[in-house]
């Protein structure tokens, strides 16, 4: 029997425990309420998706709508092909064990991150030819989609759209993305270079150099092509990274409006503090279409400032952002703010849950880059299966813990999440 998962709420009366065996045995909810229509305190609905509150017989229960629901935790739930679609900026991540001579040759510093100048472009070809590179189909959004695909273990359950150049790096990028089962449909930009990020490891230090290249050229016209829009219509869940707002805001807004109109699920990530002004732009009106919003503590504070919220703490900001108006009012917004080693806050319907970060032996940590992307990917893999919010979060924590024990956003051949 799996250990009970304890949820911590801001109110002591809102505490419940939920658990399940692998065959879906319901653990009685520890929360009791005189207003609940279930006198035993046990949730009468085991098979509810995160937004099926209307189906619950316990309509007077004061708990957040899905914190007390349980169902089978099997990761083998059958999902349809193309159920999850991601749109973002793809980058080929190249990692090598380098040396000071290489850093000096290209004017790089250890433990630093820079955008490549034209004079530094040759480094990407140099490290592929003269070192032993490890390739990863990267970029924050594509990382999350790969992790979700890895956990789903159903070929082409996920689709990814983004722009690449017409070069050998495009071929490598596509090979490694398709290798895990993602249906990648890249917009190939003639005359442009595929976006690349090189990680040069010297001892315990890491120097990052990035060339965004064609990733900045994704276009609305490509999205509207019949064969690509068919993929949009096929998907039921969407994950769009905030970075795409500086590349193709028309694409982001069009898909977000589409999701609201047909009541599909839109998940977005703030991704950077400088992007929060765009999210807060009332003329653009993006926030009103977002069903689930991810971000970190710094981004949360930047968003609150941009919107003009009164809240100061991350916890209160999460509650206030979750309560902002939505076009699709049938589905309450969920806001998830991570804080590195500090607790994650999950807010919805005026309630906020505090989730501590799982401890890990420091000796097992190899690379923290990609952990946030992995957390989102794990979450998405359960969301598309209709699992409760608690399971989405648990799988997100699992994925982050796996990735932190690898270099880059990589993982074992098969997951063991149960």
TrEMBL record:
GO biological process: purine nucleobase metabolic process; purine ribonucleoside salvage
Catalytic residues, chain numbering: 373
Domain of life: Eukaryota
InterPro entries (alphabetical): Adenokinase, PfkB_dom, Ribokinase-like
Keywords (A to Z) from UniProt: ATP-binding, Kinase, Magnesium, Nucleotide-binding, Purine salvage, Transferase
A GO CC annotation given for this chain: nucleus
Pathway linked to the protein: Purine metabolism; AMP biosynthesis via salvage pathway; AMP from adenosine: step 1/1
Enzyme type, top EC level: transferase
CDD domains in the record: adenosine_kinase
Gene: LOC106073830
Cofactor(s) needed: Mg(2+)
Reactions mediated catalytically: adenosine + ATP = AMP + ADP + H(+)
Record has Chaperone as a keyword: no
Family designation: Belongs to the carbohydrate kinase PfkB family.
Identification of the protein by name: Adenosine kinase
SUPFAM superfamilies the UniProt entry points to: Ribokinase-like (SSF53613)
EC number: 2.7.1.20
Coiled-coil positions: none
GO molecular function: adenosine kinase activity; ATP binding
Annotated ranges, domain Carbohydrate kinase PfkB: 114-412
Native organism: Biomphalaria glabrata
